[in-house]
Design goal:
Blueprint lengths: L6 H17 L6 E4 H9 L12 E6 L10 H7 L3 E4 L3 E4 L2 E8 L21 E3 L3 H5 L1 E7 L8 E7 L1 H15 L8 H13 L2 H13 L4 H15 L5 H9 L6 H25 L2
Helix pairs in contact: 2-5, 5-6, 5-7, 5-8, 6-9, 7-8, 7-10, 8-10, 9-10
Length: 274
């Protein structure tokens, strides 16, 4: 029900459904990533901080993206405008980011090169390769009970979502103006909710995968650096995002304990196959 969710989160889900509607036949090339995917997978977990996001993130797989209809035209026809080039589309002041894994986005630093769709419609993002591999279809519904829409869309699995969040946190670690404390708390949600031995095995499998392997391998030391100590940067972000609602020492300690448990499971699963 709407009353159980922050109104901005309800609006973000509505606009995400609008974007998926607009993409039509291109949805076969789409994987939902980011916070909305995390909350679908793990919910609130054991935290007092309610799930919240004010945007949506969609990863595109260029290998199954059709040439028509043109992505920009489809989005514009549904009332979206290109708010930030490349890749950030907005409607009703809510942003939807179209993202392409860096290794699949062609030449250039930021713009994803998508053939007839051009170079402004989507941008490259590090760490999304795993989402192309680790996903399954989920029926996405609105958070507003008056909105009866249901749309089937691929949603990244928790392994892929963790890899992507670790890359995002690592990329922004030395840029305080780009810090988003909620990203640290979202990682803790995953760590608290996941079966860590299973997640470790999933991550080991992704690390061996031809497409996802390199970015997943990079994420392993990120997990250790960002969350492996109580005073690590990612743990500090989780503490900051939960201030006033959770005990800081408990949050920092949980980050360190769970991250190290996952690292043991991950590295053990890797060793079993070598």
């Amino acid at each position: 029900m709407t009353g159980e969710h922050d109104p901005e989160y309800v609006d973000a889900r509505r606009v995400l459904l609008d974007a998926l509607d607009a993409l039509g036949s291109h949805r076969k090339a789409v994987v939902l990533v980011g916070a909305q995917a995390i909350y679908l997978r793990v919910g609130q977990g054991d935290l007092q901080v309610a799930p919240f996001t004010s945007d949506g993130d969609l990863a595109l797989n260029p290998s199954v993206l059709d040439d028509e209809p043109i992505l920009a035209e489809a989005l514009q026809a549904a009332g979206f405008a290109l708010a930030v080039k490349p890749g950030t589309w907005a409607r009703d002041d809510i942003q939807i980011d179209l993202l392409v894994p860096s290794s699949l986005g062609g030449a250039g630093r930021r713009s994803a090169r998508l053939g007839p769709h051009g170079t402004a419609v989507a941008r490259k993002a590090k760490g999304l390769e795993a989402a192309i591999v680790d996903n399954d279809v989920v029926t996405l519904t609105a958070l507003d009970p008056s909105d009866a829409r249901e749309i089937d869309v691929a949603v990244a699995g928790v392994g892929a979502l963790l890899v992507a969040k670790l890359h995002k946190l690592a990329e922004r670690e030395t840029a305080p103006s780009r810090w988003a404390p909620k990203d640290g708390l979202d990682v803790l949600r995953i760590l608290q909710s996941a079966n860590l031995p299973q997640l470790g095995a999933t991550l080991a499998g992704l690390e061996r995968h031809a497409l996802a392997g390199a970015s997943t391998s990079e994420a392993r030391p990120y997990l250790r650096r960002l969350f492996g100590r109580r005073d690590a940067h990612g743990a500090a972000m989780a503490v900051r995002a939960s201030v006033g609602l959770e005990d800081p020492a408990t949050i920092a300690g949980a980050c360190a304990v769970l991250a190290n448990e996952l690292l043991v499971a991950w590295e053990s699963a890797l060793a079993e196959k070598t």
